[in-house]
Specification:
Layout lengths: L8 H22 L13 E3 L5 E4 L4 E6 L5 E12 L10 E8 L7 E6 L2 E6 L6 E10 L2 H7 L7 E15 L5 E5 L5 E12 L6
Parallel strand pairs: 8-11
Antiparallel strand pairs: 1-2, 2-3, 3-9, 4-5, 4-9, 5-8, 6-7, 9-10, 9-11
Length: 201
């Protein structure tokens, strides 16, 4: 199918890719995966302060926060993507928030892959900041606000940063932990779009 080459070969490739994408989405839905990225809040119980999250099947996660206060991230969004992870069903998004030179595609090229960011700059020391947020929404309402965020929007995201998340089987067996390296894992309590893009040159 992908080897067919004619004058309309590019169109054939695009149609084939679209068909595979539709089949993949159908398969994921049939397997019970919510392709909206929405965590299954009705199957998760959050303790007071969200220091423990318990799943319907008995698995649980202990959340260790980095600070005892909220952190606020504001800036221009350069990347938005959804999480699909059975091991961390409460996670919903990766959102890259930038300021200064990092907000400009002319000065800084940015790529996000595998929950990591990479950038290339036309200057040796670009000014500004970039923060890749690994997002745990505090509620269904917060998740709905997060879905309104798009690339190039100016946003304000508030929540408590997470140092690590320890995972356990129902019988208390330790399964491992999740932590970030240079990113910001965060329990988001509010998210607002302050201005809708266009792209910054």
């Amino acid at each position: 199918m992908f080897l067919l080459r004619r004058y309309d070969g590019t169109m054939i490739y695009r149609k084939s890719f679209f068909l595979i994408l539709v089949i993949l989405c159908f398969f994921l839905s049939a397997c019970g995966v919510d392709i909206s990225g929405r965590p299954p809040f009705e199957k998760l119980t959050f303790s007071h302060g969200a220091t423990r999250i318990t799943a319907e099947d008995g698995r649980y996660w202990d959340v260790v926060f980095e600070y005892d206060r909220n952190t606020t991230f504001t800036g221009v969004v350069r990347h938005v993507s959804l999480w699909y992870d059975f091991a961390a069903p409460f996670m919903s998004h990766d959102i890259l928030i930038t300021t200064g030179d990092f907000s400009s595609r002319q000065h800084v090229a940015v790529v996000v892959m595998g929950h990591k960011f990479f950038y290339r700059s036309d200057t040796r020391s670009p000014k500004g900041s970039l923060n890749l947020l690994h997002i745990l929404p505090a509620s269904d309402e917060v998740f709905n606000e997060l879905t309104k965020i798009g690339k190039w929007d100016e946003v304000r995201v508030v929540g408590r940063e997470i140092l690590r998340i320890d995972a356990y089987q129902p019988d208390g067996t330790f399964m491992g932990y999740m932590t970030d390296a240079g990113c910001n894992t965060i329990l988001v309590t509010s998210a607002h779009v302050q201005a809708v893009g266009p792209p910054i040159p």
